[in-house]
């Protein structure tokens, strides 16, 4: 390990494939504002803010293919309630916290500042609020929701053949009224005299009676008929609204399912993001604009009659769907090879050159010829007898030799390298999912999963830098040898490896910006919050839906991967049982900021929490064996690049002991003097952290 640049590439995980951990400010669970500007708060008909075309509060695609920036749409800093969940905006980033995990619900925590957070379900909100429901009530269909002595209550008017509506225009109160229109003069529920749009229908209030008119019967739609008086009525679908508006659709756009609706030159326009496999979402927090962003994980089939992997395989062989659509659909719908209803096996290889044959136990490695159709080769064979014992296969061509199926769902490594399985084996093996998408706007990537033997349910350990976890790993960095170390630890849980994105690795694993230009790694712009949401809100739900798993989950990573593991647990402290951080970059935050916030600062501020912390490092203690009391930028550089973050890591674990963690119970630190900052060193000491997670209760 000579040369500062090489050491930096290793230790800070600034290299393309070695991950660094990230940290970031505590999001907290106390934000929230009750009076969201888009919430009518009972539907005051004197202030119909929901339809003002001069104040387009959020929604039009000037960039219909843009990615979702760090922004909070219409969610205020003080928060708002979404059922039991608190949604709030912090530093321009949308965050949420589910109060239900603490047996609480979302409600007002401060009537003075109009803030929302977690309160007792029995009614812990201060005087003046029950979530965002006022004392004077509001309508939820036929139901009146109201707040009484800080407790949320409701009454269904339908049981008296009535509906919910305004009962006093003077106090803006709501209760049960006759469906024919029993509201007092001046109000019809929350519908203003000037009307509002409900799809093609105009809802309006006339002499205290709620009325509606369906414009569709005249081949029209509902839209603004007067910008001056903010009135709504029937307009042409092509865009007959007066200058200044397109019905109630703002210039900046809005979402209607996957469709972006926006106003252009006074004409209502739409664009369906689904045709590009995307969804509608926020594209600019600054201008509050909406457009197309990356979709959810599983690709949506373009043809409704293709429901199974076999359907897709046969459609691709027939040439009626594209290879990309077929392979992505099959990958998330049973995987390759495709097992048919007739108990045959369809092998498919996405490779235009050839010819190819498929070889394996089932044909005594003699080779079954594959047929070509455009850029794929395929073969269909009967399910092998004794397939449990004759389960291996590879593809073979004269020019390339033997290769494992790069799209096989199930695979493993032998002395000859990677090899594919036809069906699930009776022993531990690996699975993978290509092109796993991120609705958070990050790049798509591969998930690689260690599967124990058996049927589950399994505990799950989520790990970063998946390219270097299994088998032989990458040529540059090698492997953690997870399979071998799981066997040594006697462990039987899933390890879900999440690929890093090479050049994006540092940004995704960083919780704060750092300027590393002087060391040749550029100015790093942190995306750690987005990556944390990707792991928690996209990867975990997919795993929990696809596999039989328990509620016990952990996080694992090395270098920057160790840092981001600590940071994710910090953001979601109730969601994980243990964090296994090997050589974590605990100095992050101080490389270019003398008093920058570190992961230690965040953990100290948060106090003791109920998950296990395992940290380790190699390297060396400073001369004399004593670390400086003050750890700034100079110490960060020398510590990270020369000592495997010894001082910053030692400081972190010592502070954790001071705030209530107990050594060898929920706090562990292993120091291997002289160990290098690489995969070989982490593989050598992996058994202990795996055992700690296995034994965690």
Tell me what the structure shows.
- The chain has 12 helices and 40 strands.
- With 697 residues, it is α+β, with helices and mostly antiparallel strands.
- The strands form 11 sheets. Strands 23, 24, 27, 28, 29, 30, 31, 32, 33, 34, 37, 38, 39 and 40 form a 14-stranded mixed β-sheet that branches. It has a 4-stranded antiparallel β-sheet with strand order 21-22-26-25, covered by helices on one side. Strands 1-2-3 form a 3-stranded antiparallel β-sheet, with no helix packed on it.
Blueprint of the fold:
Elements: H1 4-11, E1 80-82, E2 85-90, E3 93-98, E4 104-110, E5 115-120, E6 138-140, E7 143-148, E8 151-156, E9 162-168, E10 173-178, E11 196-198, E12 201-206, E13 209-214, E14 220-226, E15 231-236, E16 254-256, E17 259-264, E18 267-272, E19 278-284, E20 289-294, H2 309-318, H3 323-331, E21 338-339, E22 344-350, E23 357-360, E24 368-369, E25 371-373, E26 376-382, E27 392-397, E28 401-403, E29 410-414, E30 417-421, E31 429-436, E32 445-451, E33 458-464, H4 482-489, E34 494-498, H5 505-508, E35 514-516, E36 522-524, H6 528-546, E37 549-558, H7 560-571, E38 578-582, H8 599-606, E39 612-617, H9 633-643, H10 646-658, E40 667-671, H11 679-684, H12 687-695
């Amino acid at each position: 390990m000579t040369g500062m640049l090489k050491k930096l590439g290793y230790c800070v995980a600034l290299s393309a494939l070695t991950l660094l951990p990230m940290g970031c400010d505590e999001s907290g669970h106390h934000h929230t504002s009750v009076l969201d500007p888009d919430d009518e708060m009972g539907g005051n008909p004197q202030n119909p803010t929901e339809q003002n075309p001069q104040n387009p509060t959020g929604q039009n695609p000037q960039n219909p293919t843009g990615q979702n920036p760090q922004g909070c749409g219409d969610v205020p800093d003080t928060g708002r309630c979404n059922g039991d969940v608190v949604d709030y905006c912090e530093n321009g980033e949308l965050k949420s916290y589910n109060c239900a995990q603490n047996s609480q619900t979302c409600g007002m925590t401060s009537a003075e500042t109009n803030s929302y957070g977690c309160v007792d379900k029995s009614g812990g909100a201060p005087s003046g609020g029950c979530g965002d429901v006022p004392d004077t009530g509001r309508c939820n269909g036929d139901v009146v929701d109201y707040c009484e002595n800080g407790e949320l209550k409701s009454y269904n008017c339908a049981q008296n053949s009535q509906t919910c509506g305004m009962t006093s225009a003077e106090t803006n109160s709501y209760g049960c009224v006759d469906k024919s229109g029993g509201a007092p003069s001046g109000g019809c529920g929350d519908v203003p005299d000037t009307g509002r749009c409900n799809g093609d229908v105009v809802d309006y209030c006339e002499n205290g009676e709620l009325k509606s008119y369906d414009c569709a019967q005249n081949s029209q739609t509902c839209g603004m008929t007067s910008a001056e008086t903010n009135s709504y009525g029937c307009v042409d679908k092509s865009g007959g609204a007066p200058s200044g508006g397109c019905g109630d659709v703002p210039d900046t756009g809005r979402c209607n399912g996957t469709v972006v609706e926006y106003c252009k030159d006074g004409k209502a326009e739409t664009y369906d993001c689904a045709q590009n496999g995307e969804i509608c979402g926020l594209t600019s927090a600054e201008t509050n604009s909406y457009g197309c962003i990356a979709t959810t994980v599983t690709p949506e089939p373009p043809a409704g009659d293709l429901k199974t992997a076999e359907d897709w395989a046969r459609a691709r062989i027939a040439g009626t769907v594209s290879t990309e659509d077929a392979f992505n659909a099959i990958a998330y719908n049973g995987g390759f090879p495709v097992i048919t209803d007739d108990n045959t096996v369809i092998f498919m290889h996405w490779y235009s050159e050839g010819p190819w044959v498929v070889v394996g136990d089932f044909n005594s490695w003699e080779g079954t010829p594959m047929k070509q159709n455009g850029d794929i080769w395929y073969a269909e064979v009967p399910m092998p007898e004794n397939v449990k014992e004759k389960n291996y296969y590879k593809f073979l061509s004269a020019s390339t030799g033997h290769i494992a199926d790069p799209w096989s769902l199930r695979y493993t490594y032998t002395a000859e390298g990677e090899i594919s399985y036809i069906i699930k084996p009776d022993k531990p093996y690996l699975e993978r999912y290509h092109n796993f998408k991120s609705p958070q706007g990050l790049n798509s990537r591969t998930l690689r999963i260690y599967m124990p033997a058996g049927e589950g349910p399994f505990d799950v350990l989520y790990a970063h830098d998946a390219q270097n976890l299994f088998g032989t790993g990458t040529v540059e960095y090698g492997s953690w040898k997870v399979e071998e170390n799981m066997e040594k630890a006697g462990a039987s849980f899933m390890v879900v490896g999440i690929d890093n994105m090479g050049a994006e690795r540092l940004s995704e694993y960083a919780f704060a910006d750092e300027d590393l230009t002087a060391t040749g790694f550029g100015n790093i712009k942190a995306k750690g919050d987005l990556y944390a949401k990707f792991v928690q809100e996209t990867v975990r739900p997919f795993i929990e839906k696809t596999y039989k798993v328990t509620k016990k989950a952990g996080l694992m990573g090395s270098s920057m991967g160790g840092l981001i593991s600590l940071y994710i647990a910090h953001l979601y402290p109730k969601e994980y049982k243990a964090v296994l951080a090997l050589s974590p970059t605990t100095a992050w935050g101080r490389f270019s900021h003398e008093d920058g916030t570190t992961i230690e600062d965040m953990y100290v501020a948060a106090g003791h929490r109920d998950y296990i912390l395992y940290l380790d490092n190699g390297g060396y203690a400073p001369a004399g064996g004593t670390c400086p009391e003050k750890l700034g930028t100079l110490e960060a550089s020398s510590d990270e690049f020369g000592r495997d973050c010894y001082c910053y890591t030692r400081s972190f674990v010592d502070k954790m002991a001071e705030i209530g963690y107990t050594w060898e119970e929920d706090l562990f630190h292993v120091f291997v003097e002289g160990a290098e900052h690489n995969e070989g060193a982490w593989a050598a000491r992996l058994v202990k952290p795996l055992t700690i997670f296995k034994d965690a209760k």
